[in-house]
Amino acid sequence: MTSINEKISLLRAVKKAMELSGRWNKLYGADSNAESIGKYNVDVFWHCKPLSQTSIDEWISYCKEHNICAVIPTRDGELEFFSEHKKRFSEANIHVMISSQAAILRCLDKLDFARFLSEKKYPMIPTMENPAEIKAERWVVKERFGSGSQSLRLDLSLAEALEHSKNLQFPVFQPFLKGKEFSVDLYRTLEGEVKGVVARERNCIVSGESKITTTKRHLALEALSEKLAGELNLYGHVLFQVLEDKNNALHIIECNPRFGGASTASLAVGLDSFHWFLIEALGENLKSKSFERLPDIIQVRTFADKVIPCF
Fold it and tell me: pLDDT, tens digit, for every residue of 192-226?
């Protein structure tokens, strides 16, 4: 796993999937921060260089040296690198949970993403570089590329939106809509089948991440997300953000083509993404594996201490 940082629940979920499979020996965690908290939750920690200072040859060499044949990227800033070199990894018998480069670039570019889906007649929230092209009373401003949750501002007046946009490198504007915000986690296989999908309401959001989230059966939202994953030709675990207004109409916000911070809630109700990925990494298909949806849960994300003996 890459960029492990403080992603303890994610690391534990991968460990659980490895144990369930019974065919994986060690979990390697990579991070450019030597003091990453995650290093205490993996079998082997690799203090790697930042991707900007690393070549694909170095990555493949390290993986081959340590018999690593499955890689899970976890950070938006590295998705383009792994998608660009997906073929090189595959030729070295290293399976990466990443979509094609074209799909990744489309999802990371909020303007292109919105235009593409709007042309396909999906219920996309209007997204423009020029706010004059949108009719709205209140505004959302965000960075065009990447996740950008730290720079996101909601419910602004036009004057406030324009002022905040001066602090962004490539700002885009959207109308601010009120409603329930949902995340939808799903897993799409190498053969293009959506193996499972789980919708969850984002009850408490801090810095763009759900600190409290509730899984819910929402057939219309699940069907929309499954269709979107096929339209965008995505692979592996994918996360959609969708808003439902007071009239129950759905509005697509964005797509994160990776595992999300609170996606472990979906694992808890049966979305076996990491187990399915590890099976595919061994060259096997998932035809015999089924998605068994478990009862809904509320997940509250908190920090917990870990005590380990000194050596």
Answer: 999 999 999 999 888 777 899 999 999 999 999 99
DSSP one-letter code for 32: S
Nearest to 147 by CA among 256, 3, 294: 256
8-98 CATH fold: Rossmann fold (3.40.50)
Say what the pLDDT of residue 304 is: 73
Write out the CATH class of domain 178-300: alpha beta
CB 212 within 8 A of CB 203: yes
CB-based burial of residue 261 (10 Å sphere; 0-12 exposed, 13-18 middle, 19+ buried)? buried
Q: Among 254, 242, 231, 236, which Cα is nearest to 86's? A: 236
pTM: 0.93
Of the CA atoms within 13 Å of residue 276, those in its CB half-sphere come to 25
Mean pLDDT, rounded, for 233-258: 96
Number of Cβ atoms within 10 Å of the Cβ of 265: 25
- The pLDDT assigned to 248 comes to 96
- Whether residue 252 contacts residue 125, with contact meaning beta carbons closer than 8 Å, is answered with yes
DSSP-based three-state secondary structure for 22: coil
Q: Per-residue DSSP letters for 205-269?
A: EETTEEEEEEEE--HHHHHHHHHHHHHTT--EEEEEEEEE-TT--EEEEEEE-S--TTTHHHHHT
Reported as a pLDDT band with limits 50, 70 and 90, residue 150 is low
Sequence spans of domains, the chain: 8-98, 126-175, 178-300
- What is the share, in percent, of the chain residues with pLDDT greater than 70? 98
What per-residue confidence (pLDDT) applies to 303?
75
